[in-house]
Queue: 2 jobs
Job 1
Amino acid sequence: MTEIPEHLLKRAQAAREKAAGEAAQPAAEADSPAEADSRIPAHLLERSKAARTKAATRLGLVAGGLGARGLGTLEQVRRDARVGG
């Protein structure tokens, strides 16, 4: 069996300790679970949500309920635009 160099063992141990310390932090520190997992800043998420709602309103999709959930796939938007128009 091959021996693992001591410096690599120390590095692995330090990484394990760091991971255990990060896992021990309470999740209550974050505003919400979705924001804690997201790397996208909140102001950009809000801007994107507003743009999707505006686009859905222009296509007349809000009344059909798609605006509240997001636009969906491009194919869904095209299909709904053909049905409505």
Job 2
Amino acid sequence: MPSPKIQLEIRPTKKSAVKIEVCYADANGATRIAIELDEGATLGQALDASRIRERLAFDRESLSFGIFGKRSALDALLREGDRVEIYRPLIVDPMEARRRRVEKKRADGAQREKKVD
């Protein structure tokens, strides 16, 4: 008796989507754009899909990027719920800014003491 033939039907599987958010902040406020991409999408693809470059007119080469505060490359894979962040270059070194604040506070305190005497 011949064995029954088994037919397998192979269908392309539909990729599931991941929802992510692209964020950028500057002195004028924050911009947050929620988008949905295919599973396996990269940080660079998220930037392109969000069209944030056209909205804010920034140069990709002068900025750095991350996912939830951790610097990441443009080819980093995204997961559901990730927040892609765009980091601007620092204008002032944070340590230098702190040193200036402390010096100003000390100078202001010294001037107040002179006025009290």
